[in-house]
């Protein structure tokens, strides 16, 4: 296959993740490997932002790259961090030990055999989800055509990540809704139990159930389940105490 065909196939393979179930780490590791294979860089790494906004390493094309990325996070300087913080691409730069934009990172990169690099943000509209780091053992800059391809990879990765997170959030919401519906059934059953045992209507039974849960700092659903199981304190059946009358 020609290089152009390889690039097209890589883009199609990444796009396929949007309509299929996939592992986010495997997808991003594949992205790092494709960058090395197709873009003429020596190593690639991907960092993603946590919900709290801090970056973490998710994928790398080699052990040397993994260690350098971890150092970048520890030193809090480097191309990947700048791309994430600004939301803009960090153009090709030659590393200089102890100098330049990232003196600590540059020294570590040179020690690891890397002499230059660039980074691209993983952006979806106004949100920056992470960054893609591309390093080389030479000082030759990545061609403009390869930067365009890398940007396309980064955009597709950002879209895949956003879809993955939306799917996970939808699943979490469905689980919460299912739990809420199940809890409601349990509470309705408990209301019937209390209504029968205390000889009160369902509204009063629910009021006593809630009051007991609040007064004993317990979850309403747990108290309701205990009522059904017959393990709940009999005090819950008792009428609420009347306020003491005032004497003049």
Rg: 29 Å
Helix content: 55-70%
Structural class: alpha+beta
How much of the sequence lies in strands comes to 5-15%
Terminal Cα span: 101 Å
Poorly predicted runs are none
The counted number of beta strands is 5
Averaged pLDDT, please?
82
What is the string of SSEs from the N terminus onward? HHEEHHEHEEHHH
* Strand numbers in spatial order across the main sheet: 2-1-5-4-3
Biggest sheet, in brief?
Answer: 5 strands, antiparallel
Total helix count? 8
How would you characterize the overall build of this protein?
This protein has helices at residues 3-16, 24-39, 63-75, 79-86, 103-111, 144-198, 202-215, 220-229, and strands spanning 43-49, 55-60, 90-94, 116-124, 127-136. It is built from eight helices and five strands; from the N terminus they run ααββααβαββααα. The protein has a five-stranded antiparallel beta sheet with strand order 2-1-5-4-3. The mean pLDDT is 82. With 248 residues, the protein is α+β, with helices and mostly antiparallel strands. The termini are far apart. 56% of the residues lie in helices and 15% in strands. Strand 4 (116-124) and strand 5 form a beta hairpin. Helix 1 packs parallel to helix 6, helix 3 (63-75) packs antiparallel against helix 5 and helix 6 (144-198) crosses helix 7 (202-215).
